[in-house]
Amino acid sequence: MAPKWTCVPMVEGAYAGVGIAQKSAAGMGHMRRVALANGRSDLAQQIQSQVKDKVETFTRATGIADNETVDKVNMAVSKQVAKVNLKGSKAVDSWVTKSGTLYLLVTVPESTVNGEVKKAVKTSFKNDEALWQQFQSKQAMEGLEKEFPSN
Questions:
Q1: Quick one: which of 81, 86, 94 has its CA closest to 9?
Q2: Sign of CA dihedral 57, 59, 65, 67
Q3: Could you give the CA distance from residue 118 to residue 104 in angstroms, rounded to a whole number?
Q4: CA–CA dist 32, 12 (Å, integer)
């Protein structure tokens, strides 16, 4: 019977994804690399979706985001986070089916991703001086920490 994480990848304090590799004549090492790459791709898609939702929530809550600003911040943050969001990702569990298919549970700590998101949000606001002045209010900074806890 398959482990639960093969269908519902969840790890406390981490983003989690599943990578799969079919049995290969190239061997288990090759299969692990393929499954890890697939797992990281799964992670990246999940993270981008969750970050987009959180950034939209944050920018609207701070009261500085008309649609153009939200879109601008989302694009800037997505580009920056996409480059770094898989630092620290690793396989934490594996399962091989009877037919030889390899499943890997791949995770990256939420705090790592959230720290990068906060840096990206601040950078994108700094690129627009007027927005940065509004963003620096105590309420905005507290809201950013609430949406993206990294401690």
A1: 94
A2: negative
A3: 29
A4: 23
In order of 92, 114, 116, 130, 134, the CA distances from 63 in angstroms are 40, 21, 22, 13, 9
- Distance CA(52)–CA(49), nearest Å, equals 5
pLDDT digits (tens, 9 = 90+) for 119-132: 888 887 777 777 77
Write out 89-138 in H/E/C secondary structure: CEEEEEEECCCCCEEEEEEEEHHHHHHHHHHHHHHHHHCCHHHHHHHCCH
**What pTM does this model have?**
0.77
Closest CA to 11 of 84, 92, 116: 92
How do residues 7-59 score in pLDDT, each as one tens digit? 999 999 999 999 999 999 999 999 999 999 999 999 888 888 877 777 777 77
| 141/53 Cα distance (integer angstroms) | 18
Three-state secondary-structure class, residue 148: coil
